[in-house]
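Quick one:
INPUT:
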């Protein structure tokens, strides 16, 4: 793999990473309810899920999963159901709007592992991430490429995706006072919940 090929790969990955998706919405949901720490833990979970899926694709396990129709369908439906569940959670928060009482209770109950788990599960149960790896990676590999080359390409996606989530998280943290306004918060929860429901529905309906 040449530096020129890797540069072209980076350009494609950056465009993919910048496109808003379920990972962005899950991080935003946790950042709104758990502050910077909540968003950071969710981002770490998403990064871990990305790394696992990228490793599976690079080592050839992803192909086996993608070709196993029952496993792939099960993963798709679990992922869709989980995104819908998270979407309903956000919409319920927007509908209630009683953030002071609810968030004080949630922050006592919501452990760091729970937020990490939410990010990890939202990514690892999304087969579209695995399909992305399986469709993009082979375009930049040759018969002479090593497993190391495949892993470098896979982890590039995970690292850049994690960095982008961190940039968004820092921005959210800087405007936290404005985001803390009840009307703004309800609007963001409504948008986030609707987006998560939409991503879940799209995943479920995709053939």
């Amino acid at each position: 793999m040449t530096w020129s090929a890797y540069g072209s790969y980076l350009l494609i990955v950056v465009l993919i990473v910048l496109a808003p998706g379920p990972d962005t919405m899950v991080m935003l949901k946790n950042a709104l309810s758990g502050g910077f720490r909540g968003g950071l833990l969710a981002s770490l979970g998403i990064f871990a899920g990305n790394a696992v899926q990228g490793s599976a694709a690079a080592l050839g396990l992803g192909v086996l999963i993608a070709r196993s129709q029952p496993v792939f369908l099960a993963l798709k439906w679990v992922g869709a159901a989980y995104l819908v569940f998270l979407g309903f959670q956000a919409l319920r928060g927007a509908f209630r709007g009683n953030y002071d009482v609810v968030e004080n209770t949630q922050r006592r109950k919501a452990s760091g592992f729970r937020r990490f788990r939410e990010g990890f599960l939202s990514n690892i149960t999304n087969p579209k991430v695995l399909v992305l790896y399986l469709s993009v990676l082979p375009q930049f590999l040759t018969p002479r490429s090593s497993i190391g080359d495949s892993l470098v390409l896979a982890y590039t996606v995970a690292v850049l995706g994690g960095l982008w989530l961190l940039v968004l998280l820092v921005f959210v943290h800087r405007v936290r006072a404005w985001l803390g306004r009840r009307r703004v918060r309800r609007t963001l929860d409504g948008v986030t919940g609707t987006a998560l429901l939409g991503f879940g529905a799209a995943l479920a309906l995709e053939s």
